[in-house]
Structure formats: C-alpha cells, structure tokens
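How it folds:
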Amino acid sequence: MNEVITIDVLQAIKERRSTFSFQPEEVDLSILKEIFTYGTWAPTHYMKESWNIKLYQRNGKKAFVDTIISSYQRIGMLKTDNDSKTLKMIDSMKQFLLEIPHHALIYFEKDPDPIRYEEEYSSVCAFIQNIQLAAWSYGVGMLWTITPYMHDPGFVQEIGLDGEKVKIAAVMQIGYPKQISRNKGRTAIEEKLEIITE
C-alpha cells in the first residue's frame, strides 16, 4: 500500500477525490515527506516557498483535537455546559477526529502588502493541490478543510502560532481512504468560458 502508483497527471486530476473516511493505518512518514516534497514544486512568487506544515499524528493528535474542541466552545459552536447531550457530542467529535491518522495544518507568513499577500496565499493553495494529487498517486486520500477554528485567534495562539504574523490556509485530513467518493462530474467548461476576440 506504500508504493507509488504510476498514474498520468491528467488522469490524477480527473480521478482524485476528497476523502471523508479513513482506514486506521498510518501513512509512513517517509511517504508523507515525499508527498509534501512534490507539493513544493508549486509555482511560488519570488521563490518564497511560503508554505509551512504542522503535522499532527499519534499522541500529538490529542492536544490538537482538544484545542479544536476548546475553540468550538469559545466561538459558540459547542456549548460549555456539562449537559449529557453536549458531552456526548464532544466525545463523538473527539473520536471522529482522533481516528483520522494525520492532520496537516498548512500556514504561511502574512505579507503586509495586499498584493503580495494574495500572491503568497495563491502559491500555498497551489502547494495544497499538488500534495493532494501526489497523495492520490500513493493511494493516500486527503480532505482539504477550511473550518471556523482556523479563524479563532485563541486557537492560533494555543497551537503556538502568532495570528498577527501568520495565516492558516487549511487543515488537511490525511490517510488511506476507507472508501472513494463517486464521480459527481463537472459543469461543461463552455458554461464558464467567455471568449473575447475583439
């Protein structure tokens, strides 16, 4: 399962799917490093390579998940009482998140110039798409999440980052897929394409 599958890049683009359920088996760290290395070939303005990764796995997931729960309570998405229904919901969320083999938090340093900021953010998004495609070639699934806790200054501080200086672009859930989502198709490009000839 750790061997790379030879796959054409165009085929990978069409066949890659977001992964919503994962097998319990971890992806070997050497494979993850290869996947992230492919990501670094993304276009990057002025060769800044702005992407940074915090990878949470094994026992490291527990504190990360606790921080997520605290954030959801702080921003009002979860109650803070000891009601049995609330506690059951928290336990269920924790179990779900802890069963995901790896969580990769992708962040970058903010540039005060708004144009440079957009350039860096775009570059990091290209890095993320590259790692998704590379992962698929290894039989590894990912889910690109952009969740409310990423915008919570308390969460950013609790994971050891300075929210004034960095922006979290995504948290990637990573592992071998338990099942692969069906092909939902795409809108014909003619409906999105405007051709101007004069």
In short: The first strand starts at residue 52 and ends at 57.
